[in-house]
């Protein structure tokens, strides 16, 4: 039995690894061999740059002041904590991530439920609904900026009237609308997969027993979907927390810093302010915060995996 | 349509009404895209109108204009980077997924957790060193830098997805092959791969989508020489202000390859996402 965190009871029936209960060192190294290229590659490409970020974060290093590079200890960190723009960007990131994940999850669920029936043109509708996930986010951002949000020629003002400049009046909300539009299909795809994997007998039994649609949904479908919803939340959050395209292309973080999130702010400090030391310190802080949140998320995930492993 | 189906009198709305609602919701939701497609076939003078113009004489001028501006090299870069990084993901990922599913040893869950945790690292936290390193090893504005980074970006998710497909392989098949004395490569390529091929295809598809649409690395680490299609779109705005019709044509051309692949393989997409995740 391996040390998979899934509980022991699930393993013997499922895989043949019961026989590998006492792998001898040589054998286990041979078994690890196929894993090594991926592991070494991933460590080299993802971990080494991050270690360098940590290293840079202890230096005062601004590219526009040549020869200024020197070790400053935690100086950059103190500056970052004192920086109200950083805190603003952090708040924006949290709001943006939570709102976008939640709304696209709810919309995705609604769309998935609409699609989980047989009806005329179902394939076409599904194809339509998937498509925003398939277009370039950069193209999507530009599309929304121009044809939807433009104060004079935009479709939103055409439909609702008025001459609102959406991107300056509601910068964060506008960016979020585009991100939600982009990610709803992804959530829908995942939830649809969950719906389609529901055992039909159970649903029929519920209907025979006279359970209404709402009752069937809350008592059977939602619990069945919970793993899919958690997964959609996790994956969606991973990608949405890193949102950059929409902000870069639609608002440039503005007006002022109203729609600046952490990725965009760090990018600005590094590539427009050329402050390598400070932006590195910000990067490290973001990673630490992400790790804290992710630890909870991962624990949740693993619990889910363990439960499903036990049931199957 | 609504009158034909009255068998379930309990429901107020017939299935026909629900179908109509579904269609309306779907069309409203993708309307920005429909509008983009329409605009791509307009002249600039038809694109900027108040009220917006629904009827116009279609033209292919904008597409010609986009290609004239040097779109094709960017398309070539995107294709190169996407195909190569996806192949590398499979090259590294298939053996790893095998090791983590069918032949796990001590520390397996650590490795799995490690792979997923790399997805949690915000990419922005590594961009500065990546920029400095690329500059030092002459990979700035070089397609190979993107190939390496996209491989690392997609590998963790791919391993998780493929692992779940490998777990579906019937144990008896593997046991039988082992008893027959099949070596690991034989086992992998003759017994396991045929079974997991659809899953691998689904995984590859997801990698293709994420590589093709990636923006952050591409914008920060490439320029004219190695730029991918998102970089073309950015350069497009900054140099010429906004030409909506041509921008729409460019956005459409840039997205079309992945849109087509995604449409064709949408069943794989659904299956791949769910299996990867949940099993």
Give the termini separation of chain A: 17 Å
Helix content of chain B: over 70%
Give the SSE string of chain A: HHHEEHHHHHHHHHHHH
Give me the secondary-structure category of chain B. mainly alpha
Kindly estimate the percentage of residues of chain A that lie in beta strands according to DSSP: under 5%
Low-confidence stretches of chain A: 1-24, 307-312
The number of distinct helices of chain A, counting runs of at least 4 residues, comes to 15
In the sheet with the most strands of chain A, the strands line up as 1-2
Oligomerization status of the protein chains: heterodimer
Average the pLDDT over all residues of chain A and give the rounded result: 83
Terminal Cα span of chain B: 41 Å
Helix/strand order of chain B, N-terminal first = HHHHHHHHHHHHHH
Instruction: Describe the global form of chain B.
Output: globular
Biggest pleated sheet of chain A: 2 strands, antiparallel
Number of strands of chain A: 2
Structural class of chain A: mainly alpha
Query: Which bin fits the share of residues in helices of chain A?
Result: over 70%
Q: Average pLDDT across residues of chain B?
A: 85
Radius of gyration of chain B: 24 Å
């Amino acid at each position: 039995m391996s040390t998979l965190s899934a509980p022991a009871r699930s393993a013997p029936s499922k895989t043949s690894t019961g026989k590998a209960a006492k792998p001898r060192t040589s054998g286990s190294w041979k078994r690890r061999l196929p894993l090594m290229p991926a592991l070494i590659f991933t460590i080299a490409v993802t971990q080494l740059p991050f270690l360098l970020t940590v290293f840079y974060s202890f230096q005062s290093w601004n590219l526009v002041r040549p020869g200024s590079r020197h070790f400053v200890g935690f100086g950059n960190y103190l500056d970052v904590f004192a920086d109200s723009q950083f805190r603003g960007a952090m708040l924006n990131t949290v709001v943006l991530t939570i709102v976008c994940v939640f709304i696209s999850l709810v919309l995705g669920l609604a769309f998935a439920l609409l699609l989980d029936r047989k009806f005329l043109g179902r394939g076409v509708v599904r194809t339509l609904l998937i498509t925003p996930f398939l277009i370039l986010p950069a193209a999507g951002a530009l599309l929304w900026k121009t044809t939807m949000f433009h104060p004079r020629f935009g479709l939103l003002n055409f439909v609702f009237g008025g001459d609102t400049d959406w991107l300056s009046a509601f910068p964060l909300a506008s960016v979020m609308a585009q991100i939600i539009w982009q990610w709803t299909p992804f959530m829908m795809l995942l939830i649809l997969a969950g719906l389609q994997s529901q055992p039909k007998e159970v649903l029929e039994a519920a209907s025979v027993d006279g359970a209404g649609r709402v009752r069937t949904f809350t008592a059977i479908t939602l619990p069945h979907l919970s793993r899919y919803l958690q997964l959609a939340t996790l994956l969606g959050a991973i990608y949405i927390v890193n949102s950059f395209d929409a902000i870069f292309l639609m608002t440039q973080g503005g007006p002022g810093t109203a729609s600046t999130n952490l990725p965009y702010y760090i990018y600005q400090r590094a590539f427009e302010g050329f402050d390598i030391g400070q932006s590195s310190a910000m990067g490290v802080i973001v990673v630490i915060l992400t790790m804290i949140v992710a630890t909870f998320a991962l624990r949740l995930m693993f619990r889910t995996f363990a439960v499903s492993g036990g049931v199957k | 349509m609504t009158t034909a189906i009255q068998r379930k009198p309990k429901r107020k709305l017939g299935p026909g009404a629900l179908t109509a609602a579904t269609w309306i919701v779907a069309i409203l939701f993708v309307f920005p895209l429909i509008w983009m497609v329409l605009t791509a076939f307009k002249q600039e003078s038809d694109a900027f109108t108040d009220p917006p113009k629904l009827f116009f004489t279609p033209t292919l001028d904008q597409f010609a204009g986009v290609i004239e501006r040097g779109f094709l090299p960017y398309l070539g870069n995107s294709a190169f980077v996407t195909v190569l990084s996806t192949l590398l993901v499979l090259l590294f990922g298939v053996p790893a997924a095998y090791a983590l599913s069918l032949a796990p040893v001590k520390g397996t869950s650590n490795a799995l957790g490690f792979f997923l945790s790399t997805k949690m690292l915000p990419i922005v936290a590594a961009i500065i060193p990546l920029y400095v390193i690329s500059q030092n090893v002459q990979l700035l504005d070089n397609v190979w830098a993107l190939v390496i980074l996209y491989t690392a970006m997609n590998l963790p998710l791919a391993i998780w997805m493929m692992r779940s497909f490998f777990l579906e392989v019937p144990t008896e098949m593997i046991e039988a092959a082992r008893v027959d004395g099949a070596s690991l490569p034989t086992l992998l390529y003759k017994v396991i791969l045929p079974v997991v091929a659809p899953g691998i295809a689904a995984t590859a598809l997801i990698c293709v989508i994420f590589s093709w649409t990636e923006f952050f690395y591409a914008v920060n680490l490439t320029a004219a020489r190695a730029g991918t299609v998102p970089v073309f779109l950015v350069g497009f705005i900054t140099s010429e202000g906004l030409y909506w019709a041509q921008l729409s044509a460019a956005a459409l051309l840039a997205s079309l390859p992945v849109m087509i692949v995604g449409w064709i393989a949408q069943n794989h997409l659904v299956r791949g996402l769910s299996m990867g995740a949940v099993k």
